[in-house]
Amino acid sequence: YGKQWYQRRVRGVYNRKIGEGNTTEALRLLISGCKLFLAHEQMDSGTELALMLGDHLTTHDTRPSDAITKHLVEIMSALWTSESGKQRFLPKIFKWSKLHTEHGDPALHMACAQRSLQESDYISCSIHCQYLDLDGVDFYCHTLLDVARTHVYKSEADLVITSAVLQFLALHRTEHARRIFKQFISQHLPSSPSFPYPTPLLNFTELLLRAIDRKSAALVKILRDHYKPTLERDPTLTESIDKVLRVYFNECKQQSPLGGLGGLVQSLFGPPADNGAAASATIQEDADLD
């Protein structure tokens, strides 16, 4: 009965503060009350106030701040063991956060990624990692290296990093993609840190990043077709490449232009050239990229 009384009391004071137009004090009350309940493992009451907090942030157009983010991370951490509470609270705070940043506050995503990693939930961790800022790439890279070394077959390590690169490119986060590939290669393949790499898929990823830098949809399509047997190891890779074409070049899936891989490599590693000419160029030397 005591906790129900206190919860009703908090609600009553909150409504009075809102009626007075004192949204700042109302917000402080929700935060302190929520954290107090959760600290005493009163999950039901803590969750209810947490949900009120999430609604308050959106309804009253609360501006983000480091202090608010810190409180939200602490509340999220306390709710993490309650699957129901977590699943109801997170959508509310990310809904609010996305009103102010495109994908939500990177600090909130980092907190979720770290907790997911602690539970070895690599899928959820990866989902949140794609929205980290550039400084967060280091964390994501270490996570991918751990997955590559201990959770997949050695032959699948290239799938791990290529999927992450495509994940970033699908969000038009070119620098994120470039940085994580470079860091992963330098640590995973210290004896082969430069192109060409030991597997076709890693070579594809390097060439794809160069094609993006050249702003050439034609080169991306040539790569997609030439490396089709390799990309078919995971059907989602081709789907991701088609999304990259839409994001960077506003192109839907269509037949690729004709062109040789030799000319493609020459165009990617040589000085910038006309994209159409580069796509159709060929050279006689064999390209040992398969």
What this model shows, in words?
The protein has 290 residues and is an all-alpha fold. It is built from 16 helices and no strands. It has helices at 2-19, 23-39, 43-59, 66-79, 83-97, 106-118, 122-129, 137-150, 157-169, 174-188, 200-213, 217-226, 228-231, 235-249, 261-269, 275-280. Helix 6 (106-118) runs antiparallel to helix 7 (122-129). The chain is elongated, with a radius of gyration of 24 Å. Mean pLDDT is 87; it is low at 255-265 and 273-288.
Structural class: mainly alpha
Listing every helix as H and every strand as E from the N terminus to the C terminus, the arrangement reads HHHHHHHHHHHHHHHH
Shape: elongated
Radius of gyration: 24 Å
Distance between the termini: 70 Å
**Tally the helices: what do you get?**
16
Number of strands: 0
Q: Taking all residues together, what is the mean pLDDT?
A: 87
Give the low-pLDDT segments: 255-265, 273-288
Strand content: under 5%
Query: What level of helicity do the residues show?
Result: 55-70%
Largest sheet report: none
Features:
290 residues, mainly alpha, elongated
Short recap of the structure:
This protein is mainly alpha-helical. Helix content is 70%, strand content 0%. The chain has helices spanning 2-19, 23-39, 43-59, 66-79, 83-97, 106-118, 122-129, 137-150, 157-169, 174-188, 200-213, 217-226, 228-231, 235-249, 261-269, 275-280.
Write the layout of secondary structure elements.
Blueprint: H1 2-19, H2 23-39, H3 43-59, H4 66-79, H5 83-97, H6 106-118, H7 122-129, H8 137-150, H9 157-169, H10 174-188, H11 200-213, H12 217-226, H13 228-231, H14 235-249, H15 261-269, H16 275-280
